[in-house]
Inverse folding.
């Protein structure tokens, strides 16, 4: 099979750091074009277009990978599917769950692949954690996801606009891991948000979560205002009293203090493996549960505004 | 077939004004029991229990109709399904979409009917409006839903707590009509909320909506702070320039100024007809789109706080 020719749309940090090098190393894909309103550096042999429409019209691409801010992803994805492209979307796939559901319907109608990606679901710890949780059950879960937004995203401000999700931008990574690991569905029961002056989205969020069989003991703290070392951890207390600890955002996993996984980040290679399989199988994967949980949290939030 | 014996859970205004008289007039059902922590007036021949659990254990009911505030509906519905009951839920069916999805899975597993009701979907205007919109298309839509919360719900305060939805409590009625009428899916693109001192949920909400083929021209205003006459209207500008106007929350419909529907309120009789069909067919109806749109609006909201 000849490589799937990919065009990137929206050339920011995630495109540069993850998509471009991953595509360069994956024989099932070839990065042939990019669309950006700015004038980004372009790898040798890659064509640059001002718009997605011109890029698709060039005939150089079979698929687009949409790396714009989430507020405009729906329109790009819809246009691309209608033009016959397979579509891969960065997380979160759109502003709202209703938009993703419509894209999934459209992908089925036009017979193209839609892949709403959640990169943390491809972290090394997810599959072994899922197996252990299915075998031993969990009576409690504590998500702790904290980092300094100014260190990781200096000068970026779309996070604070409606639809930008604030601290749920990293927080949905944790929620996607949980969706990928837990043998039961999970719900938001309570949410407390802290919102900075001028922002529309929270910088910290504390969630009380539940499953059908555990009404309490499951919680999450997302903190984007954290000045020390980053923490991206999930700790489960297992039904038999054991402790399962995921760290490094999914790069490590320990069971009762013994290392189960300690691996370099291979999320994006795994993500593009999955995209290749979906295209080959004529299938789509439009997972919305992490975005659903975020929207549910907003709908239940008690909001504390930090005085301006 | 002998009547389905129904137990009501949560005896507030909606149970008294709608469920009790509707059940009394419907030969397919018999109201046999009620569960309430208060001591409500009870119709002749109806048993009163302090809890749903005692009511179910009495063996007097085949189905429960859950009319509590939405924050606690999930737990009641889950317990009832696990105890072998069919379950009808007032709108909105739960705090979050994730909870409703889980109840739908559970209903399938236990082989009982779950009916997440949206009473306005049974209003007289919905079916004819759906037919006209499918035939003639709509280029614009304006929802105007305004009333005085203090007139209709004096002294009720769970609306203002997280999960109580504020003005979306009536607003989801409009959204449910739109979901039932429109030939296309609909999304929230922007939302502006006004929140009163001490409240966690909005008293007014202005929404910019869109469909896959109409990026603008669709909007909604929900206003619970309105002192004049109530308005529960939806106006569509049809593709051929015609005007379709729904009024009275779905009791009337006019096309180009001519009356199509002008009928008394028969929403709850229609709703219980549907419940009888679902139970007879061994099916469920767990519609979540109106709640999804509300959650999506919360996740996109620009919030203006009224100073305290």
């Amino acid at each position: 099979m000849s490589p799937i020719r990919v065009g990137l749309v929206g050339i920011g940090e995630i495109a540069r750091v993850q998509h471009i090098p991953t595509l360069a190393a994956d024989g099932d894909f070839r990065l042939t074009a990019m669309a950006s309103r700015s004038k980004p550096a372009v790898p040798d042999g890659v064509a640059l277009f001002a718009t997605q429409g011109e890029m698709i019209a060039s005939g150089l691409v079979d698929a687009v990978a949409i790396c714009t801010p989430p507020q405009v992803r729906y329109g790009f994805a819809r246009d691309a599917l209608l033009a016959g492209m397979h579509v891969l979307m960065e997380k979160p796939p759109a502003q709202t769950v209703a938009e993703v559901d419509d894209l999934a319907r459209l992908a089925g109608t036009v017979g193209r692949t839609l892949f709403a990606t959640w990169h943390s679901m491809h972290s090394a710890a997810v599959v072994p954690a899922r197996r252990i949780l299915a075998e031993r059950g969990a009576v409690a879960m504590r998500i702790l996801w904290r980092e300094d937004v100014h260190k990781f995203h200096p000068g970026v401000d779309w996070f604070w606009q409606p639809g930008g999700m604030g601290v749920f931008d990293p927080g949905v990574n944790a929620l996607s891991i949980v969706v990928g690991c837990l043998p039961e569905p999970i719900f938001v029961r309570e949410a407390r948000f802290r919102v900075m002056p001028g922002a529309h989205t929270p910088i910290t969020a504390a969630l009380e979560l539940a499953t059908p069989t555990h009404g309490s003991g499951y919680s999450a703290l997302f903190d984007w205002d954290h000045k020390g070392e980053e923490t991206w951890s999930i700790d489960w207390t297992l039904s038999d009293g054991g402790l399962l600890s995921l760290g490094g955002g999914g790069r490590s996993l320990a069971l009762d203090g013994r290392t189960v996984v300690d691996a370099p980040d291979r999320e994006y290679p795994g993500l593009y493996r999955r995209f290749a399989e979906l295209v080959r199988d004529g299938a789509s994967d439009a997972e919305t549960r992490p975005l659903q949980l975020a929207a549910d949290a907003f709908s239940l939030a008690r909001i504390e505004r930090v005085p301006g």
